[in-house]
Amino acid sequence: MAIKPQKEILLTNNLRKIRSQVRKVPTSLLDQLLTKFQQVVNERHESDKQAQKALAEHNKKVEKYLTMMHSDGVNINDLVIGSTFPAFKKPRRTRKTHGPKYQYQNPAGELKTWNGQGRMPKPIRVAIEKKQKMLNDFLIK
């Protein structure tokens, strides 16, 4: 009899949800999952120990250098004041300016232009809605 593969087992901290999910899973599969999960946990403990060890070594070095500085009469402020730091500014991105693409006449009779970005000017919008003209009719030739 073939076992249907489970879609996923939800990782949760709620014991009731875990029990309801594994109710139909065979114990042999649960044992395999347990050994794999235990292996992952052990690996995580080892990596955490190594990270703590590296941090402790780093802190020892920092303490060593601080004591050397204090014994030589060097203050941290002396280091900061004596050095120059480059200004880290993000370069501003310049936007491309789009030239005028459409030309229309406003109610006052003045010729105006529109580049096709942003809100459509009212005279163009009204002419298109009334189906008097199409947008291509306003193109600058």
UniProtKB/TrEMBL annotation:
UniProt DNA-binding region: 117-122
InterPro entries: H-NS-like_N, H-NS_C_dom, H-NS_C_dom_sf, Histone_HNS, Histone_HNS_N
Molecular functions per Gene Ontology: bent DNA binding; DNA-binding transcription repressor activity; minor groove of adenine-thymine-rich DNA binding; protein dimerization activity; structural constituent of chromatin; transcription cis-regulatory region binding
Subcellular location: Cytoplasm, Nucleoid
One Pfam short name: Histone_HNS_N
Protein family (similarity comment): Belongs to the histone-like protein H-NS family.
Record-given protein name: DNA-binding protein
Species name: Zophobihabitans entericus
